[in-house]
Amino acid sequence: MPDRPWKAEERQVAALFGGTRFPANTGGPVDVETDGFVVQVKHVKRMALAELEALALEIERIGFQKPVPKIGVVSIKRRAGKKTPRLLILTEAMWRELHGGGGA
Fold first, then answer.
1. pLDDT tens digits for 49-69?
2. Given strand 20-21, what is the order of strands in its sheet?
3. Which of 73, 78, 77 is nearest to 58 (CA)?
4. Separation of CA 3 from chain center
């Protein structure tokens, strides 16, 4: 079975976070999980901002619903060659949670 670029991206993100990659056949929205993070990985040609926003809100909801809340992050990389940067997206609520729930 050929190694798909999106699978490689998920493995790289799992290594970046030091977490476990969940295979695509598990059917869930979480691709990578650690003790403190849940991550949705996207490897796309393009994505609308509204779609990215919806993913960020969904992974935020999943992170807050964990028995011990976790930070939800969307990792997105544009499929345009190896030089494209990986972006790590989180909502303001996740940012605040990451920094102890404090104010701005």
1. 999 999 999 999 999 999 999
2. 20-21, 32-33, 37-44, 71-78, 86-89
3. 73
4. 20
